[in-house]
């Protein structure tokens, strides 16, 4: 993302521009009823369906298992909605020369990418909220002790995952390749977050588990667990550091490697 | 025999009448131009003729066959250049033609097709690196590959430079001379005038003018203009004319005859006519007329009944000129 | 001739796409080979568990390489008006789609065979006792999944939504066939028949029979229900394609 000299001092985010791009992305998404339907229905089915079914079939109440599956599925839904969607959206817009057109209108690079990310994060957060509320209503999973921490955690993780999506759109530059390319990442985040159930996670050798915990969704599980149970916030330095490092790595990669023109 | 027959064809999309009861025929071996402004219904007509869309009512016959029902058979004898269709961006122009040859029975050699479309030099270039005009030419190469009897060209020269456009015209003329029937849409009037023997002009889904190119233009008014000699009053002229500044302009069905009359009249009076210009009608005049009549009928919407008999064929009179 | 031509085109587009290979070949292969190999090394009854897991991961190959791949490729080509262009040629609609499906089936079956051999070498999982049963269901299953992928494109409004709208099935298929481990056992029992009725589960069941002990007779019995399930899905797919398949992106 090359920065052009403008009247704005370096480092000041052109908030109005970011929001304008976010609004554009939002209008494209929400204006398309079929798209909303497709993503929302499938996202809710995945995110709420499995924990619901498992809570219903367990003979005895087991909040731990339900919470584990809930967070695992949340990791999967967030990765699909944030990482995959961002990767595909950015490379589709690049291929269709929309990014170029936005740049031609004088918007700064960070405003364009920032706007797309804001829009995706909003979608992901909304979806997580729907999924969570369904679970609090229809299962014995209690709402988090620290709801604000949980919300902040979802927003932050969605942001980091979306930034990673932007990096994916650099690595695989064709829109039809992005979705398949993110599959290994989706599987990894889901396994790491416990989405395949305690059995699979338990099978993994220690070093694999340790590596998977380094993923942003590993940090999400730790923060979210604390939010659900309550506890001392100071224990969160590790996960917060983790998310910060991922965000920085992503931003640096985007800053130096992002391309605006389709491949020639 | 007519290569293309269209009978009372209509098509609407979600309430919008794109094509409204049109009929025409294209004789084998002729070039037929379908003209009209953007949104007039040209592309929908082509899509109906090529079997991409089913008509709501009416019928289409191409080489005596129904392009929807007998698609495979029709396709074997027809070349289509769509206004919008994708390419595989990572294949080269040459590879694209090679692959298309697999789909085409009795195809031309790849080199020949590229040569016809003037793309030989770009054979090894990836499609994503071609310019808009070059992609159009690749489109043409694919359409010509199967030596079609009928060729549909939807705005074939859009995005080409003038020289490339002339080359394409040459190719189309050559094909027509060898018996290929060509139906083309264009909004370059010069293109239609250069290539077509027959034409139809569409407006709002209907055909408003139709006929042979020469007859249609001959039936239009031409004009004669000259500098009005200083002491002559416009009422003294042998025919009515409007005067704009020093310039007198007269409409005439036969501008040559009007010019002769005018010269006779002038020599009788010992006058010299400066800046005498005689113009036969061009497609451009026809188009401007259509546009103006359309504007008038919109401006006069409440008083429309006054013009009722004329506005159903808005091109018939050019009375408002000058 | 024309079918061969569309097949060739699809194959050319698939294999010259170096960028696609990690996604559509290496991921499913990695899972189908890696998971059983992992299990073999960490569990006491390694080989049995690895064999069990391997057969389950075939569902991931089927839903990843056959279903997801063809759905994404076709929606993208539809949006880019490439399908429309193919229709300007003499090819019939059936030939165009069949070429895609045939090509997808080849890739999927090849991956299934490669992974069967690989887990044999790496995790000591035996080769199928009845290779014919294995092969028949590999081909039939890939064909049904690819056809379902073609049908599913009708539900997808735009190319960029193809992946998010298809990935859940990838997960569902893996879950239902046991590729995700025992999480399936946590689900309510009334759900099991539905999971077993998935086309991927049908293939996995038949393939499991081809690995397990049995005779020709018992194999035929074991194949009966999966055959029926695949036939129903194939019917559903073909009917939906007839009724809903779109060659161009929506205009509205």
From TrEMBL, chain A:
It comes from Microbispora bryophytorum. One of its GO terms (cellular component) is membrane. Residues 61-225 form the ABC-2 type transporter transmembrane domain. It is a multi-pass membrane protein. Its main location: membrane. GO terms for molecular function: ABC-type transporter activity. It comes from the Bacteria. InterPro entries: ABC-2_transporter, ABC2_TM. This is Transport permease protein. It is found in: Membrane. The chain crosses the membrane at residues 35-55, 67-90, 111-136, 148-171, 183-208, 240-258. PANTHER family: DOXORUBICIN RESISTANCE ABC TRANSPORTER PERMEASE PROTEIN DRRC-RELATED, TRANSPORT PERMEASE PROTEIN. Keywords: Membrane, Transmembrane, Transmembrane helix.
From TrEMBL, chain B:
It is found in: Cell membrane. One of its GO terms (biological process) is response to antibiotic. Residues 4-229 form the ABC transporter domain. PROSITE patterns: ABC_TRANSPORTER_1, ABC_TRANSPORTER_2. CDD domains: ABC_DR_subfamily_A. It holds the Pfam family ABC_tran. Keywords: Antibiotic resistance, ATP-binding, Nucleotide-binding, Transport. The keyword Oxidoreductase does not apply. GO terms for cellular component: plasma membrane. Residues 304-315 have a biased composition (Basic and acidic residues). Its main location: membrane. InterPro entries: AAA+_ATPase, ABC_transporter-like_ATP-bd, ABC_transporter-like_CS, ABC_transporter_ATP-binding, P-loop_NTPase. One of its GO terms (molecular function) is ATP binding. It is a peripheral membrane protein. Residues 296-322 are annotated as: Disordered. This is Multidrug ABC transporter ATP-binding protein. It comes from Microbispora bryophytorum. The lineage of its organism: Bacteria, Bacillati, Actinomycetota, Actinomycetes, Streptosporangiales.
UniProtKB/TrEMBL annotation, chain C:
PANTHER family: DOXORUBICIN RESISTANCE ABC TRANSPORTER PERMEASE PROTEIN DRRC-RELATED, TRANSPORT PERMEASE PROTEIN. Residues 10-210 form the ABC-2 type transporter transmembrane domain. Pfam families: ABC2_membrane. This is ABC-2 type transporter transmembrane domain-containing protein. It is found in: Membrane. InterPro entries: ABC-2_transporter, ABC2_TM. It comes from the Bacteria. The chain crosses the membrane at residues 20-39, 51-76, 97-125, 131-154, 161-183, 220-241. The keyword Transcription does not apply. Keywords: Membrane, Transmembrane, Transmembrane helix. It is a multi-pass membrane protein. GO terms for cellular component: membrane. One of its GO terms (molecular function) is ABC-type transporter activity.
């Amino acid at each position: 993302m090359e920065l052009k000299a403008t009247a704005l001092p370096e480092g000041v985010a052109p908030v109005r521009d970011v929001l304008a791009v976010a609004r554009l992305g939002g209008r494209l998404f929400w204006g398309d009823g079929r798209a909303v339907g497709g993503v929302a229905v499938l996202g809710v089915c995945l995110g709420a369906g499995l924990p619901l079914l498992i809570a219903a079939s367990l003979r005895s109440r087991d909040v731990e298992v339900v919470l584990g599956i809930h967070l695992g599925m949340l990791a999967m839904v967030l990765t699909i909605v944030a990482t995959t969607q961002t990767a595909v959206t950015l490379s589709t817009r690049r291929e269709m020369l929309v990014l170029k057109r936005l740049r031609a209108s004088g918007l700064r690079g960070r405003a364009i990418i920032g706007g797309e990310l804001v829009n995706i994060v909003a979608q992901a957060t909304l979806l997580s909220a729907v999924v969570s509320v369904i679970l609090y209503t229809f299962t014995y999973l209690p709402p988090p002790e620290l709801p604000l921490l949980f919300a902040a955690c979802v927003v932050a993780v969605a942001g980091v995952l979306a930034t990673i999506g932007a990096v994916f759109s650099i690595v695989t530059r064709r829109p039809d390749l992005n979705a398949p390319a993110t599959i290994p990442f989706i599987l990894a985040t889901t396994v790491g977050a416990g989405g395949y159930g305690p059995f699979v996670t338990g099978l993994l050798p220690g070093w694999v588990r340790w590596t998977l915990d380094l993923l942003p969704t590993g940090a999400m599980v730790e923060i979210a667990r604390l939010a659900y149970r309550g506890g001392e916030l100071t224990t969160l330095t590790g996960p917060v550091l983790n998310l910060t490092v991922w965000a920085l790595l992503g931003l640096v990669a985007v800053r130096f490697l992002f391309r605006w023109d389709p491949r020639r | 025999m007519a290569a293309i027959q269209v009978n009372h064809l209509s098509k609407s999309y979600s309430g919008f009448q794109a094509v409204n009861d049109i009929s025409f025929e294209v004789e084998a071996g002729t070039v037929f131009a379908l003209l009209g402004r953007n949104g007039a219904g040209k592309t929908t007509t082509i899509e109906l003729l090529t079997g991409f869309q089913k008509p709501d009512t009416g019928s289409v016959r191409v080489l005596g066959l129904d392009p929807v029902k007998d698609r495979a058979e029709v396709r074997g004898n027809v070349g289509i250049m769509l206004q919008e269709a994708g390419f595989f961006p990572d294949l080269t122009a040459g590879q694209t033609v090679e692959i298309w040859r697999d789909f085409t029975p009795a195809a031309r050699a790849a080199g020949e097709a590229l040569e016809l479309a003037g793309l030989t030099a770009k054979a090894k270039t990836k499609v994503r690196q071609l310019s808009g005009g070059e992609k159009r030419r690749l489109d043409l190469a694919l359409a010509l590959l199967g030596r079609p009897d009928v060729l549909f060209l939807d705005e074939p020269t859009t995005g080409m430079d003038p020289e490339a456009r002339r080359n394409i015209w040459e190719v189309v003329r050559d094909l027509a001379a060898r018996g290929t029937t060509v139906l083309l849409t264009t909004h370059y009037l010069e293109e239609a005038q250069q290539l077509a023997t027959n034409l139809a002009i569409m407006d709002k889904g209907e055909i408003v003018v139709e006929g042979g190119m020469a007859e249609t233009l001959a039936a239009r008014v031409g004009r004669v203009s000259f500098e009005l000699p200083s002491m002559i009053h416009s009422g003294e002229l042998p025919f009515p004319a409007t005067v704009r500044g020093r310039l007198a302009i007269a409409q005439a069905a036969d501008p040559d005859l009007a010019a002769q009359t005018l010269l006779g009249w002038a020599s009788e009076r010992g006058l010299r006519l400066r800046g005498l210009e005689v113009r036969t009608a061009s497609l451009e005049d026809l188009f401007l007329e259509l546009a103006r009549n359309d504007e008038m009928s919109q401006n006069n919407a409440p008083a429309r009944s006054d013009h009722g008999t004329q506005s159903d064929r808005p091109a018939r009179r050019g009375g408002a000129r000058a | 001739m024309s079918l061969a031509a569309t097949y060739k085109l699809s194959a050319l587009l698939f294999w010259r796409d170096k960028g696609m290979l990690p996604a559509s070949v290496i991921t499913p292969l990695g899972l189908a080979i890696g998971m059983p190999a992992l299990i073999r090394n960490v569990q006491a009854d390694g080989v049995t568990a690895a064999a069990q897991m391997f057969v389950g991961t075939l569902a991931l190959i089927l839903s990843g390489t056959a279903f997801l791949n063809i759905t994404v490729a076709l929606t993208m080509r539809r949006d880019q008006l490439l399908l429309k262009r193919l229709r300007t040629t003499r090819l019939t609609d059936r030939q165009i789609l069949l070429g895609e499906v045939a090509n997808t089936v080849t890739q999927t079956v090849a991956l299934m065979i490669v992974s069967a051999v690989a887990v044999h070498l790496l995790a000591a999982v035996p080769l199928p006792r009845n290779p014919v049963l294995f092969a028949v269901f590999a081909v039939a299953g890939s064909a049904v999944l690819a056809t379902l992928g073609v049908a599913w494109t009708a539900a997808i409004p735009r190319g960029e939504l193809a992946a998010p709208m298809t990935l859940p099935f990838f997960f569902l298929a893996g879950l239902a066939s046991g590729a995700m481990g025992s999480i399936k056992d946590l689900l309510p029992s009334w759900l099991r028949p539905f999971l077993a009725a998935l086309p991927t589960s049908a293939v996995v069941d038949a393939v499991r029979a081809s690995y397990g002990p049995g005779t020709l007779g018992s194999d035929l019995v074991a194949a009966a229900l999966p055959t029926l399930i695949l036939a129903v899905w194939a019917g559903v797919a073909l009917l939906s394609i007839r009724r809903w398949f779109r060659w161009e992106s929506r205009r509205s």
